[in-house]
Write a structure and sequence with these properties.
This protein is of the alpha+beta class and about 60 residues long. The chain is built from three helices and three strands, in the order βααββα. Helix 1 crosses helix 2. InterPro entries: DNA-bd_dom_put_sf (IPR009061), HTH_17 (IPR041657), SinI_DNA-bd (IPR010093).
C-alpha cells in the first residue's frame, strides 16, 4: 500500500477561525473552487496547506 503524505485537514469552523471569516464564507470559497476541500460524509475538510496558501495570495484590488 502506498504511503500517504502527512496532510492535516481542518474543519470548516477551524478554517473560518483561522481566516477570521464566517463559516458561510468558507463554504462559498469551497463551492467556488477557490479553496480545495474533501467531503467526508456530510461535512467538508480543508487541507491546512490550502488555507496557508490562500492566506498568502495577494488580495485583488477592488478600486
Amino acid at each position: 500500500m502506498a504511503e500517504l503524505p502527512d496532510v492535516r485537514f481542518l474543519t470548516v469552523a477551524e478554517v473560518a477561525d483561522i481566516m477570521r471569516v464566517s463559516k458561510m464564507t468558507v463554504y462559498r470559497l469551497v463551492h467556488a473552487g477557490e479553496l480545495p476541500a474533501v467531503r467526508f460524509g456530510r461535512s467538508y475538510r480543508v487541507p491546512e496547506s490550502a488555507v496557508t496558501e490562500a492566506l498568502q495570495r495577494p488580495i485583488a484590488d477592488v478600486g
